[in-house]
Amino acid sequence: MRGRLGRLAGIAAALLLAAAAGGCRTGMTSTPRQRADRARAIISDWAEPARLLAAKLLDEYGPPDRLESGRLVWNDQRLWKRISVWDELPGLGPGEGGCLLEETVSYPVPARKRPDLAAFSGDIRVSVDGTELSARSLSEERNALAVDLADEIVKGIKTPDQARRFYDHTLRL
Question: Nearest CA to 123 among 137, 109, 110?
Answer without folding.
Answer: 137
